[in-house]
Design a protein that fits this description.
The chain is an all-alpha fold. The protein folds into 2 domains: 70 residues, Orthogonal Bundle (434 Repressor (Amino-terminal Domain)), CATH 1.10.260; 40 residues, no CATH class. The chain contains 8 helices and no strands. The longest helix has 13 residues. The protein starts with a helix and ends with a helix.
Length: 140
């Protein structure tokens, strides 16, 4: 279950709102609310989140938690074209092994990612794209 799915379910339970009631109040189909809650659909668009905030009248801390849960529930990762090659390999390794990771492994990886300190890695800077010279500049 994604963080957003979990948040939506817990929110409905906390405020004692049925899916049908929430859907009618927000102007969405009950099947869409259900698909979000069970994780069939990815995180919803900002419009849905804003409507949910208004309809349920979430507190500022609940709003922050909702937005964080939606962000954490993104299913796709897009790497910048200038991303160093070792990051591509890291992402590939995670993609291949993500289903095999134990909760302990996940905690360890997250702890490493949260480490603070000087950025003294051995990786060289990402190669920069070369600009093409204009035809006049290329003549000798």
């Amino acid at each position: 279950m994604s963080p957003f799915s979990h948040f939506l379910h817990e929110l409905r339970m906390r405020y004692d709102i049925r899916q049908v009631e929430l859907a009618e109040t927000m102007g969405y189909e009950q099947s869409y609310i259900s698909a979000l809650e069970v994780g069939i659909k990815g995180p919803p668009p900002d419009e849905f989140i804003e409507r949910l905030i208004d309809v349920v009248q979430l507190t500022p801390s609940e709003q922050q938690e909702l937005r964080a849960a939606a962000e954490a529930s993104q299913r796709k990762l897009v790497l910048d074209p200038d991303t160093p090659q070792d990051i591509y390999w890291l992402v590939n390794d995670l993609r291949e092994k993500v289903r095999q990771l134990s909760p302990t492994h996940v905690r360890m990886i997250r702890d490493v990612l949260c480490m603070r300190g000087p950025a003294t890695d051995e990786r060289s800077e990402a190669p920069r794209r070369l600009k093409r010279r204009k035809k006049e500049e290329a003549r000798m």
